[in-house]
Amino acid sequence: MCVFFLNKKNIATFAHINNFNPTNHFSEHLNRIMDKEIVLSGIRSTGNLHLGNYYGALRNFVRLQDIYDCNFFIADLHALTTNPDPQQLHASVKQILAEYLAAGIDPEKATIFIQSDVPEVAEMYLLLNMHVGIGELMRTTSFKDKARKCLGIGPAKDDDDEAFEKQIIGAETNKRVNAGLLTYPTLMAVDILIQKATKVPVGKDQEQHLELTRRFARRFNSFYGVDFFPEPQNFNFGAAAVKVPGLDGSGKMGKSEGNCIYLVDNPKTLKKKVMRAVTDEGPKEPNSPVSEPIANLFSLLELTSTPEIVKQYKDAYADCSIRYGDLKKQLAEDILKVTTPIRERVNDILADEDYLRKVVNRGAEKARERASKTLAEMRQIMGIRRF
User: Catalytic amino acids?
Assistant: First the structure.
């Protein structure tokens, strides 16, 4: 695909050649006449977005929405696998929608929608499940991990699949693993395939699910002898993935780990979190190796601070003069420079119910247009036809 950037001069030329008014819903018309690749990404409505979401995804989404046919949704159906409180679920959907918008995702350029506002997804979820095996779902790493967590049982010996099945089916407990958790990869595949997305940004923990999506697409195409579903590929924005570490000294930032800095944290809360970040005893000799907790703080500093400040603290570590309290205060100040404008925009957006309603209604309409076409064609291929 040839990608080019439009400025005022070549917009005018482009408009003259294609005989349209560039001031009249330009982005919508451009989507129709340019062959843009479809990008799709969603996030579960289980809490606020954090600094990892921003640097790992949102910032790139903003850059891409002028180039690709971008579709960003809030996965409230996926969130049901954890049986959330209904009031909390609705509030979380609204919050994440506002945070999408505050981070710079533009509903005039990208399609922003709520998963449950596209009922075609639920029907296609049923249809695609007819071509998905229970065994391949039970063998997914994420299902094993989450199922064991739900049941409060440890890993099977040698991670044996047969032993794991016995644990799941024969576990003597009142706890249960819901079927939605098992078929999570099918629903994720439907999210992607129903929009015919070819580029899907996913983290390492979701790569197995994306591979299953490709497998399901190939299986459907082969079974019915059609070339219907494209095989989506992971999209890393043309650069190495950004890993945003948490504040607990190891791993990446994540909601379930409780090590997050949220985009809407107020200054007092944010500073308290950063000041409590895990450190070590400090370097004992010049040019000592950097421990993981301190490397994580330096990584956060590199994301949010100027190169001069990063160098200042790395040099201080190298000559053993570093004071972790000063480092954390600097880090908190620089993170606030990033998050404060977003937090303030979130508050303004949440106060405008009419605007939020307009955004999701328009997004649902656009998402359903493609989804309904895909579903109708899929039903036809499978032999589900009206007399």
Answer: 146, 252, 255
